[in-house]
């Protein structure tokens, strides 16, 4: 908004200078006072209208909030009218054409730019045709021919430069987009396990550190569960490592579906996972982990035409204020070993 307002202010200063120049020309009898007056009202009025639409935020609802394209069409039209009414001083309007086109660098597509160029040639040809039909000066037709050539030179030069700048701008924009995407990817790689997309061990340790502090401060129960796929080695040995990888991915999806959005699943290492359940009393955690256990038991992973099934053992415990997170995880591990020892495919709480 600040940039658009500043651009609008710059356009207003330029327009005021042009109006002053037209009045100066009229004051010396070169242009008609009344025509200059009407032209000034229309030119400045249009500018004020655009400025108001931008400043009030109304233009934000439109596809191009800067209204660069429409503003440019309007400015070129004012310029062409100035060419007709400026009499012998009409030459001063031509350099302004390039200035108007330069405004196109900010926010116009290359297609819009080409349209403005064609539109400008059309308008100036019409303006010259009008002057040749209803001459207001004694200029020779050849002079108008020279004007038209100058219009073409100005337009092709400034359109080319603006086109190049627009291309550079678009290139920079696409590079920025690529960089943002790469940064997002790097951030994901830094916090997630590549195979399963579950949170990685390092990031989970950080999340646990923060969550432990929060749970103590607000006196809210925090549960930690350690999950280990039963006889996972057999899957690898029977169907291959890739089948094992696919099983790990399917396992993560199943666990994610069984826990709440506020709980966090992390790959703790190999086929061992850790779930952090926040604001959850033991009863709720037990129900949740039992649900996960059942979902994993019912899971069928299809790989190369083979249906792979497996189960999970889970050790669940609650964080006790004052102890270290490592101690809590150690207790969850003990519960897990108990689950394994009792025959696997079960949840043990400690
Ligand atoms: N495919 C695959 N296998 C993995 C990965 N990480 C660890 N493993 C395998 O997981 C298996 C773990 O085996 P064990 O620790 O003996 O345990 P288990 O076979 O699951 O048996 P229990 O835990 O006692 O029920 C090993 O064969 C590892 O090679 C992985 O990223 N992909």
TrEMBL record:
This is diguanylate cyclase. InterPro entries: Diguanylate_Cyclase, GGDEF_dom, Nucleotide_cyclase, Rev_trsase/Diguanyl_cyclase. Keywords: Membrane, Transmembrane, Transmembrane helix. The chain crosses the membrane at residues 37-54, 66-86, 92-108, 113-130, 142-163. Pfam families: GGDEF. It catalyses: 2 GTP = 3',3'-c-di-GMP + 2 diphosphate. Its EC number is 2.7.7.65. SUPFAM superfamilies: Nucleotide cyclase. Residues 220-350 form the GGDEF domain. It is an enzyme of class 2 (transferase). It comes from Rhodoferax ferrireducens.
């Amino acid at each position: 908004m600040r940039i658009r307002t500043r651009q609008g202010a710059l356009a207003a200063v330029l327009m005021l200078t042009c109006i002053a120049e037209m009045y100066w020309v009229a004051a010396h009898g070169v242009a008609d006072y009344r025509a200059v007056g009407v032209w000034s009202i229309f030119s400045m009025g249009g500018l004020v209208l655009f400025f108001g639409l931008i400043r009030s935020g109304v233009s934000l609802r439109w596809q191009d909030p800067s209204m660069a394209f429409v503003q440019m069409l309007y400015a070129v039209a004012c310029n062409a009218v100035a060419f007709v009414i400026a009499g012998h001083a009409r030459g001063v309007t031509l350099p302004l054409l390039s200035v108007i086109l330069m405004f196109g660098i900010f926010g116009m597509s290359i297609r819009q730019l080409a349209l403005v160029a064609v539109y400008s040639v059309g308008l100036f040809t019409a303006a010259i045709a009008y002057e040749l039909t209803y001459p207001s000066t004694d200029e020779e037709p050849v002079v108008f021919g020279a004007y038209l050539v100058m219009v073409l030179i100005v337009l092709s030069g400034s359109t080319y430069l603006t086109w190049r700048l627009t291309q550079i701008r678009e290139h920079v924009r696409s590079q920025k987009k690529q960089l943002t995407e790469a940064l997002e990817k790097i951030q994901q790689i830094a916090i997630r396990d590549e195979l399963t997309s579950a949170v990685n061990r390092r990031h989970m340790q950080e999340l646990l550190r923060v969550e432990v502090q929060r749970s103590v401060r607000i006196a809210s129960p925090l549960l930690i569960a350690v999950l280990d796929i039963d006889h996972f080695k057999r899957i690898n040995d029977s169907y291959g490592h890739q089948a094992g990888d696919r099983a790990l991915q399917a396992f993560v999806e199943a666990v994610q579906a069984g826990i709440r959005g506020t709980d966090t699943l992390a790959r703790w290492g190999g086929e061992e996972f850790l779930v952090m359940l926040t604001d959850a009393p033991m009863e709720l955690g037990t129900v949740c982990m039992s649900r996960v256990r059942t979902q994993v038991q019912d899971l069928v992973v299809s790989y190369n035409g083979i249906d792979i099934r497996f189960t999970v053992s889970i050790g669940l415990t609650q964080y006790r204020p004052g102890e270290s997170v490592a101690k809590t995880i150690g207790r969850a591990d003990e519960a897990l070993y108990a689950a394994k020892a009792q025959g696997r495919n079960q949840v043990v709480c400690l």
